[in-house]
Amino acid sequence: MRKKLMLTALAPVLFALGAGNLGGDEFDQEDIDRWQEQFMQVVQEGRALWTDGTLGTNGVACAQCHPNAANTHPETYPKFQKQMGRVVDMWEMFNWCLQHPLEGEELAADDAKMIALIAYARHERRGVELEPGKH
Amino acid sequence: MTQSNRRKFIQRAASMAAVGTLPLTYVKLGRSEQSAEFSFAFLSDSHIQHIRGNEFVRNWDRGLIRAVAETNLLNPKPDFVIYGGDLAQLGTKPELDHGAELLSALKYDIYPILGEHDYYLDLGEYWSDIFKRPHYYSFDHKGVHFVMLNSILTYDEWTFERWPTAEQRMNEMAGLDNPNGSPFLVGDAQREWLKKDLAEVDKSTPIVVVSHSPLQKIYKGWNFWTDDAEQMQAILAPFDKVTVLYGHVHQIQYNQIGNISFTSAMATAWPWPYPGSYAQAEHYLPVLTVPMNRADPFFERDATGWQFVDVHTGRVAVHYNLYDNAVRTVAWNEDTGRPEDTVFQDPAARIPPQQHY
């Protein structure tokens, strides 16, 4: 942490000296670990929401129909949803579930809760090849 | 009943249903020297869920209401109804009362068993009060011996020591994918009871075992599993004709292990994914199973339903009554000696919605 603060403090000086590329595109294992930790924290928030009966209004949780986020197929979005009549992204399908089976309110695409739900579903689907559009 | 008669009565039942097609699964048992041909309905996994006051989750209520209505409209009438467990979601009195009230519209005798969602709040006490049934029992009907199990027990430490409150114990078991859950067991005491019960039964008598959990090991992560499955199969092995009907999995599954045929029930509430669609899972879905169609979430009753069971010659044909989809029939095939889908068993006959990924 001390190293990063020092680099941040020195950045204008280094840039002024013509050394602006130092620190900008270099990262080490410590950074990778920290970024992964940040991601997994959001995944855990997503898991908590996934099993939370208060996300909607009727006590139903995502995990009731989608244990381990199975059958959500994150690798296939965006794709054509015949009932919506157009190509949609995953957050739009999640909102459909929030409004119908969970009888709740939709979330904005960039709502921290929506990002956490998507992070959890994609994490459970890790390792599966991308197949956008697949039905 | 001939095929065309059966089709007619299903069509009549469907056309009489004011709400349209109801999801149902029906099973037919066949004739042997001792057993007459008869039928019963097999409903399971309604997960009646209390919200507050007198409010319950509408979607799950509708699934059970529809199955009860369709079952009542059957003509000719089934001899009785089997309920395969998980009537409630969290085992509370309001849920069990409301579920029993919906079931009380049935015009037939009901033989119910416990699911884990009925059990882990008060260990099945209130369930027994309202159904006036013990947790496990047997009965005979037209030459077939029925065994009704409580197969959702687990290890004593988990049940009696681990959790500070009964509510937490119920909640931990209610999450299908919750790693704090525990594998299902029939358990020593019930297996001893079963051995004694079956000691009185001739080896040629057809046996139908009704169990909430599969008495086989399919996927442990979601408790599509019974830890003492092999011991249970060994107890059933000496009998000529054994059929295990089970709930819990909310999807069509069937299998043959030795002399034992296994056939599952769909839920009236909601369908579950096949374990293979969880990318991190190691699972053993029976290769014999042709999956049901992938559910369309935009139709809330899609991939839910109930079973009509024909019994003849001591074997069963299970008819899965699906909303908006053709009826699926999984029937004993005398030539191959296993249950098979009467339309889709041949890989060349399968359709794209049966592909799960």
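qc> Chain B touches chain A at residues 47, 49-51, 55, 57-59, 175-178, 221-222, 270-273, 275, 277-281, 294-295, 297-298, 300, 356-357 (CB under 8 Å).
qc> done
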